[in-house]
Amino acid sequence: MIATLTATLLAGITIVLPMEAPVRGSEIELGELVTINGATPEQLALLEDIELGRAPTPGYSRTFDAQTIHMHVRRALPGVAVRYDGRRACRAYLETSTVSAKAMIEAVDLALGAEVGTRDVTWSPDSTLGALEVPLGSDASAEPELEVILGGTTVVSGLLPVELRIKVDGVTYRTVRANWKVSVWERLPVLTRNLPVGSKVSASFFELRRTELPADGRSAILSPASMVGAVAMRTLVEGSLVYSKDVERPMVLNEGDLCILIVAKGAIRAKVQVVALGTAGIGDIVRVRTMDTNKELAARVLSDELVEVNLDA
C-alpha cells in the first residue's frame, strides 16, 4: 500500500481534458470540466474549486486549452508538477432550463395579490412576454428563483412598472422589465343618462356602480350631493364620472364668510361658529377656523350656512 501511494505521488498530478463538458451556474469551475488524478484530497479540493471565468450565454460555448488552465493551476498550487492529458482543449457549454412566460406571470400575480390584499383590483401584462433560457443552478432539480419588484409606492389604475429578477444560485442572472395594466375598482357615482351642454345636473341622475378608480383617486370626483345648481359645461355621457371641469357650480361660501361647523361622532353632534378660509361650493372641502380657539380644520360644505367634519368617516 505504501509503495502504491509513493508511486502515485511521484507520478504527480494529471489533469485530463475531455472534448466538451456541460457546466452550470454563472461561473465555471475546473472540477466541472476535467478529471483530476494523482492529487491529495487537499490538492483536489483546491483544484476543483478554481474559477476559470464566466459561464457562456445559453446557446454559446467557451473553449479552455491546457495552457490557459495551467495558468490558473499554477496560482493555486505553485511549484507542484502537473501533467495534462486527453484533448488539447475542452469546450464548455451551458446546461439550461427554461423560464416560461406563464411562470413569470404567475410570479407577478402572487406579488400583486399580496400587495392589494382584499381590494378589488384586476391586472394583466401590457405586452407579450417570451420564455427565457437560463443556466441550471448547482442543484439541477431546483427551479430558478423569480423575484418581483413592483414600481411605485401604491397600486393605482394605469401602467405599473414591474421588474422580474431571475436568480440562479441566489445571484441575479437576468432582469426583465415590463409594464402591467392595472385597474382598481370601487363603487362610484356615475351618470345614469346623457346630458348635453347647458343641462342642469341633479343628484338624482347618479347611481353607484363598480367603476375603475382613476389614478388620482376619489379626490377629483364630484359627489351627487355637490350638484346643487350645477350646469354641464360639456356633453356628459351615461356611465361616466363627473369632475369639477365638467360642470359649473355656484360657490356658496367665500373667504371670510361666517358659518356653523357640525362635528359628528356617532350619534353626537357638536356645533361651533367658524370662518371660511377659502371659496367652495356644496360638497367641496374647505379650510375653516374656529372663532373661539383659532383651530383650523378641513370641513365639507353642506350649505351656505353649514359645514361638517365627520369623525367617523
Describe the protein.
The chain is α+β, with helices and mostly antiparallel strands and 313 residues long. It contains five helices and 23 strands. The chain has helices at residues 2-11, 30-33, 41-48, 66-76, 101-116; strands at residues 13-17, 20-23, 27-29, 35-37, 51-54, 61-65, 82-86, 89-94, 96-99, 121-125, 132-135, 145-150, 158-168, 171-191, 200-201, 206-212, 230-232, 247-248, 258-265, 268-276, 285-290, 296-301, 306-310. The strands form seven sheets. Strands 10, 12, 13, 14 and 16 form a five-stranded antiparallel beta sheet that branches. A five-stranded mixed β-barrel has the order 19-20-21-22-23. The termini are far apart.
Essential attributes:
313 residues; alpha+beta; eubacterium ventriosum atcc fold; Type Iii Antifreeze Protein Isoform Hplc 12; five-stranded mixed beta barrel; 23 strands; disordered N terminus
